[in-house]
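Hi team, as promised in this morning's meeting, here are the two structures we talked about. I've kept the exact order from the run log so nobody has to guess. The first one is mostly here for context; it's the second one we should focus on when we meet again. Sequence first, then the predicted structure tokens.
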Amino acid sequence: MAVISIAIVEDDPACMEQLADYIQRFRAEKGISVRITQFQDGEDISEEYHPGFDIILMDIQMRFRDGMTAARMIREKDSSVIIIFITSLAGYAIQGYEVEALDYILKPLTYDMFFRKMERAMRHLKTDRDDYLVVNAGEEGSVRLKLSDICYIESRSHVMDFHTPERVYTARGRLEDLETSLADKGFFRCNRGYLINLCQVDGVRRDCVLVAGDLLPISRRRKAELMQRLAEIL
């Protein structure tokens, strides 16, 4: 499994350190790779949030922006990140259903409880991960894109443009690598410069395929295979 990106949002330094220690212990026991990012308040993570975290461990009661408000703001930009609340009052945690939180951990923290909650998060993460692609979009950092939202990927000199209905994300990389990893996810390379999502195809016009309103050229040697692949999903 790839590196798991975990955010800790906690205004209590002692609890922050304890959570970081627990994550490292869990990492060692499970044999996984993790990247930890620490935030001292809900305001710090939510103000200019960019999708990219796999799991967020977030205190509910914080000084400047409470965890519930921060979670609502995060959910507006990221529907897939796993949120686990940290709280001393179980009553607060019930509100987590409003923001689709996976679970909550009660203070004072114990490793046994933390381990069980993380095990559950890992099961959800393993199930969901195949449906998303994380790209490094330059100054925006890591962005998690839902595969079904990617209309097509355009390659130009080791730079790739990920076209989605909302906008285009740009990242460095090779289209050949994505062609291999997305081959069984409904993507097809219609020519040297384009990898298209077959479910986003609106039609074929002579030597071009219509994807999200854009006409993309089809190479002569790939057209027959493209037509066969399209027929299979109809």
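And here is the second protein, the one for discussion:
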Amino acid sequence: MRRARRAAAVLAGALLIPAAASGLKVGAIVPEFEKTTLEGRRFSLAVAEKTHNGVVVLFLSTICPYSNYYNDLIRDMAGEFGKRGVLFVAVNSGKLETAEEARAHALEHGHRFDIIKDPEARIADLFDARRTPEVFLLDSRGILRYHGRIASKISSPDLKSAIEAFLAGRPIRPAETKAFGCAIPRS
């Protein structure tokens, strides 16, 4: 048992990658994409932006311990802010996890928001997303308003604070935070 925990800790430490400067900067217009969700619905970022106050694009993983640490918080925020016109959509990039695994993981954790499988990491490339979890908050015009982490483990509610400021029309401070997590695999 101790050996298994140690192996998991070593693996987690090896996968921990701090964010480098993203190619997509706060204030930039995010490139459009369309893709089918795990549930078979067509998702268009342009339509989502036009029909919601904001859109949170989350890069998540079923196997990354850092991503999984936030499962309950993500579920709760999606429910809370969904009532206020903010749409959450998750992207599972890379080939390490199957669509079936992502779907089962979503059901297990109560994730009712759309999830998109991105096996070739094309959406990750559009956003220059490098790790899971990594989040991007967009306004109704497709402008990136916040990029970085969901929250720090010392209870800094970064994404929640960013959405609250955004909805209140206040500046988001900080508008960029370092995301830590597991690398998004590229082919």
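Starting points for discussion:
Residues 1-22 have pLDDT under 50 and may be disordered.
Residues 69 and 154 are 13 Å apart (CA to CA).
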